[in-house]
Specification:
The complex is a heterodimer.
Chain A (H helix, E strand, L loop, with lengths): L1 H27 L7 H19 L2 H25 L4 H20 L13 E2 L9 H6 E2 L1 H19 L1 H11 L1 H6 L4 H27 L11 H11 L4 H24 L5 H21 L1 H7 L13
Chain B lengths: L1 H20 L6 E6 L9 H16 L3 E2 L2 E2 L6 H12 L4 E4 L5 H10 L4 E5 L8 E6 L1 H15 L4 E6 L4 H17 L4 E6 L6 H13 L4 E4 L5 H9 L2 E6 L10 E7 L1 H14 L6 E4 L6 E3 L7 H16 L9 E2 L5 E3 L7 H5 L8 E2 L5
Parallel strand pairs in B: 1-2, 1-3, 1-4, 4-5, 5-6, 6-12, 7-8, 7-9, 8-16, 9-10, 10-11
Antiparallel strand pairs in B: 11-13, 14-15
Helix pairs in contact in B: 2-9, 3-4, 5-6, 5-10, 7-8
The chains are: A mainly alpha, B alpha/beta.
Chain lengths: 304, 357
């Protein structure tokens, strides 16, 4: 029973964690991309279409990642090269993504999809309880864990990560030091797009292997909130994503169990939990400020 | 960049103008407002299939423009007004949330006929129409009681409004007519449309031991989960057999086409009048998808019940029926009237859940 619940939690939390990690990197470089929902849905539709066309969900995963990254490039061009307002452009990206994905996927609605099958890791997969939970999962779950560790290492242990954080904190100083602000930000935006695309692919290939319009249903926005919730730290994104997933799934089980608490309250719980944690975090202003990228959302025009 | 945008906008306007201008004058315009996309695989798609049936039936005599993805609220009023202004003889607004907007626009355009789905506010030129979905759910309940080995089914509900509560009660009464001890577990997803959440609710119910699933949400995700876990399920709004060829027992299929044809015929004949219509299985506004994945005797029972409901011999809400707290609601032989059904805000006896109020 517990194992079954936890398996559901993992499936629900994985897309949130992946999309939030991507956005975290983008924001650490000082760019606020509110288009996560749009990039996610583009990843979902392209992954689904590619899978249906080729018959291979692995090609679907690659296609989803590529679609997310390519779509984010549009955002990059508008905000970094043309220096458009990041908030407005991000919102526009979401709206465009929702419309465009509906158009692309129109003839695919209702088609039974092909599920990305779990990969059983020998020996580890046979460990009781933990084995089925952690070592008999699909590729995207393994990638999500690898991303958490990789991004943590990149941000806080690598030289390039340090430079990127410097850009996010003060782009003018970084520029004066000879760091290429625009190029780094382009890469960070594309990385964020790729992660959103991967999260979208998880939705249409693992979570519910099908395509329907607007199937992300707000998960992109939750991922955005998670980044703030985690105060821009990858390990906290992992914890926050799983907390959110656990509360969401837990309330469904509580209902099915007939616990007798009003369902509206239970449905609101994940959001209430988010607010509570935000209050606790913001209580300590200094640590919040240390982690917040100081140049977040500010346009950068290099002086000549 | 700015030039490009202007060029694009101009092109779009031009294209719009061309398609708009090409409409012949002598055709009667029958217009539709959709809340979702016409390929949502559920509610709106069912309405669009109805629109296509209408177009096919009348051929060149009518045209049927529609607006998709119209949000409920202030935008709806503008969309409906735009339709009315463009020369529509009749406008179907196909979501509950369009009610007040439709009422307002209907006042401004007394010569245009309006029809609002699932609402309760009517006017001289505004009719309402709805479908007795609960008739189909009663049949599903009977099938569930026959097919379930554990005697407990799971119900994925959307919002605690009378429409949904009515469906839950009808399902359980159907099941209890076969097995008086039948139990029903309800999970409120608090959404009409979120494949992921619907799938999670399905998994939760299955993990809690139900072996039959039914849903009052719009996507095929629960059907897919049921198929994966090897249990049986019922489809909703559209035939969902493609998502579970070995899983779907039957589905309630909204077939609005028959209704649309009837009403447009009345309009063309000049005898349309405002009515509050609540049709059911016998009128063809609601049909059952083929009974599949069940033995012949269960199928025969389902068909018999369907025939009895159509003939009026059987009303799903016939006493004796007790409320969840054990007090009597309907006495022996008493039938619930439509008013009681449309305002239903309580469970009948046997639901393993507390109704959110």
């Amino acid at each position: 029973m517990l194992e079954a619940i936890l398996l559901t939690v993992i499936t629900a939390a994985t897309p949130l964690v992946i999309a939030a990690l991507g956005e975290l990197v983008t924001e650490r470089s000082g760019v606020l991309n509110l288009g996560v929902e749009g990039m996610m849905i583009m990843g979902a539709v392209v992954a689904f279409v590619a899978t249906q066309t080729t018959g291979s969900p692995y090609i679907g995963v690659v296609a989803g990642i590529t679609a997310g990254a390519a779509f984010s490039l549009l955002f990059g061009f508008l905000t970094l090269t043309l220096v458009a307002n990041q908030v407005a452009t991000g919102l526009a990206l979401t709206i465009l993504g929702l419309g465009l994905s509906g158009q692309i996927g129109e003839s695919y609605v209702g088609q039974p999809g092909i599920k990305l099958q779990p990969i059983n890791i020998p020996i580890l997969g046979d460990i009781p309880f933990l084995g089925p939970l952690l070592f008999r999962q699909d590729l995207i779950f393994y990638l999500s864990i690898a991303l958490v560790i990789g991004i943590h290492w990149f941000l806080f242990r690598s030289r390039t990560g340090l430079k990127m954080r410097a850009i996010g904190d003060n782009h003018s100083s970084a520029h004066a030091l000879g760091i290429n602000v625009i190029r780094t930000r382009y890469l960070a935006v594309m990385f964020g797009g790729a992660c959103s695309g991967l999260a979208g692919a998880q939705l249409s290939l693992v979570y519910t292997p099908q395509w329907v319009e607007n199937m992300a249903a707000g998960r992109g926005w939750i991922a955005l909130a998670l980044v703030v919730f985690a105060s821009w730290r990858p390990l906290r994104v992992l914890a926050g994503g799983y907390l959110f997933g656990a509360v969401t799934i837990g309330q469904l089980h509580a209902q099915a169990f007939g616990i007798g608490i009003p369902s509206q309250f239970l449905s609101a719980l994940p959001y209430v939990a988010t607010i509570v944690v935000l209050i606790i975090i913001s209580h300590n202003r200094r640590t919040t400020l240390i982690n917040t990228p100081a140049s977040l959302g500010k346009p950068f025009v290099p002086e000549r | 960049m700015k030039k490009l945008i202007i060029a694009l906008a101009a092109t779009a306007a031009l294209l719009g103008g061309i398609t708009g201008g090409a409409q012949a004058q002598d055709k009667t315009k029958i217009c539709f407002i959709y809340v979702g996309s016409k390929t949502d695989g559920g509610w709106t798609q069912a309405h669009d299939i109805g629109r296509q049936a209408l177009q096919e039936h009348f051929g060149d005599k009518i045209e049927t423009p529609f607006l998709e993805n119209v949000p409920e609220g202030p935008d709806a009023e503008r969309a409906i007004e735009r339709m009315a202004r463009s020369g529509c003889a009749m406008v179907f607004t196909t979501s509950f949330g369009f009610m007040d907007a439709t009422v307002k626009v209907a006042q401004k355009f007394p010569d245009v006929k309006f029809e609002h789905a699932t609402g309760f506010k009517a006017a001289e030129n505004l009719a309402t129409y709805n479908s007795r979905f609960y008739e189909g759910r009663y049949i599903q309940g009977q099938i569930a009681a026959k097919m379930s080995k554990k005697g407990v089914a799971g119900y994925i509900a959307s919002f605690p409004i009378p429409e949904v509560v009515m469906g839950i009660n009808a399902f359980l009464l159907g099941a209890q007519s076969v097995n008086p001890d039948f139990e029903l577990k309800v999970v409120w997803a608090n959404t009409w449309f979120d494949p992921g959440k619907e799938a999670d609710a399905a998994k939760a119910l299955i993990d809690q031991g139900v072996d039959i699933l039914t849903q009052h949400t719009d996507t095929t995700a629960p059907m897919q989960v049921a198929a994966e876990r090897g249990i049986l399920a019922f489809g909703q709004a559209s035939d969902m057999i493609a998502a579970g060829p070995n899983t779907q027992l039957t589905a309630i299929v909204d077939t609005w086409g028959a209704y649309y044809i009837k009403r447009v015929q009345a309009l063309l004949d000049g005898n349309w009048k405002s009515e509050q219509i609540w049709d059911g299985l016998k009128d063809g506004i609601l049909t059952m998808a083929p009974y599949t994945n069940m033995p012949d005797d269960v199928k025969a029972m389902a068909e018999e019940t369907e025939a009895k409901i159509k003939s009026g011999e059987l009303h799903p809400f016939t006493g004796p029926v007790n409320k969840q707290d054990g007090t009597q609601w309907l006495a022996e032989g008493e039938k619930a009237d439509d008013g009681a059904l449309l305002g239903m805000n309580f469970y009948v006896e046997g639901v393993d859940d507390k109704l959110p109020q």
